[in-house]
Amino acid sequence: MIELKMLREDPDTIRAALKKRGVELDLDTVIEMDRTRRASMTEIQELKSRRNELSEKVGTLKRKGEEPEELMKEARLLTESIKKKEEDQRELERKFEDLVKWLPNIPHDSVPVGTGPEANRFVRGDRTPPQPEFEVLPHWEICEALDILDLKRATKIAGSRFVLYKGMGALLERALINFFLDLHTTQHGYTEIFPPVLNPVECLYGTGQIPKLESDMYRCRDDALYLTPTAEVPLTNMHREEILLAKDLPKRYVAYTPCFRREAGSYGKEVRGITRVHQFNKVELVKYATPEEGYAEFEKMLSDAEAAVRALELPYRVTLLCSGDMTFASAITYDIEVYAPGMKEWLEVSSISCYEQYQARRANIRYRKSGKGTDFVYTMNGSGLATPRTFIAIVENYQTKDGRIRIPDALKRYMGVDSIGR
RNA sequence: GGAGAGGUGGCCGAGUGGUCGAAGGCACCCGCUUGCUAAGCGGCUUCUCGUCGAAAGACGGGACGGGAGUUCGAAUCUCCCCCUCUCCGCCA
Known about the structure:
- By secondary structure, the protein is α+β, with helices and mostly antiparallel strands.
- Helices cover 42% and strands 20% of the residues.
- The protein has an eight-stranded mixed sheet. Strands 5-11-12 form a three-stranded mixed sheet. The chain has a two-stranded antiparallel ribbon with strand order 3-4.
- Helix 7 packs across helix 12 (387-397).
- The structure holds one RNA strand.
């Protein structure tokens, strides 16, 4: 949620933000709607003020033993007309909210303006991919040869675009999850959470998946619950409707969860292998911070995620997403991509976003400022990391000419072997 | 699934239908004091929305799990829903 004050005092900033993002939206209608609802609110408040006055008088008189029939009648009539007006008011508020919830966050000043990936800015890392001295097999071929993925049977038991890891493949997947969790809890100061992966609609609204991405989520038929699309949802909603103490901030959480996405509309792209699947594993980082320290914590989060890629010694690059490429709740987003030499592609393994106060306003997450008053916290999250693509990167980058897969040093103690194959 | 108890401020916890936005405590913040790992004394602080204002603020509305109702007036009475706890049953 954007700040409503901005709608009245600085609509041009919102207009500029919409333009940067390429969002078509009639802001004037929203502004007009806001004016109408506030006028109606003021009117109701005046009536109530009058009624309270009357009630107080009635109370005083009654205690003296009088029956002020006239006053009571007037108050009764007032209550009736208030009720009518309040019904209309509710309708106005509902319409207004339906408009406001579609307003995206204001992009940070450093975000490059553009509509597609070509406008994203290289930040650091490998500019050009490494050139292996032999023809690296794409992961689906080497994994089939080594019998560590079984995509045919995954389809049989779940459907297309699901993954079944097998034998050393399953072990590698599990090793990655454990390695990421250990890294962030022991080296970077995050508290581990193991949350439920079914979430009610309020939570999805709070983080901003609803309304925009509703069709991309799996919904339960008999219960008002959605399968979590990312641990960002449970972790950021942990403190929904709370007032935190400044001394408890920043809060840093890390969680492993499976993530579920329908990927509606993405068929036809990335059909081979496991780059885009309906269920995948991810270790997610979430922080709550004060506005003052928000961006410092955000940069630290980026380097925490980067540390995971570095520890695995994978070729990677960090990019700053342009305005048109960010999700609608985000103020700024970095992507970390690793290179997959078999697919000859850069794959996104982490997306690190700062929402500033956007999510906090939606989810009503505040903190008490030292001394007086409250303010909304900054929330941010980042993958640290998502496994399917990290799995791909390992299988392709650590492939040997004779068809084995070496195990990165960082994972050896989790795997107990030096390589997969023979 | 059955029975009972309960949901009040940042936290704990009082609260006869009208001076209750709410006692008391903790915590916080601000003073003062004290020579020793902190304590004592005094004071302050609920949140939210609207109107006016450059601001400080002033005035007003609302909020005691959520919703509806009774009433001139509801934290307090009635109904529905949600959640928590205890006991019983069932069970991975």
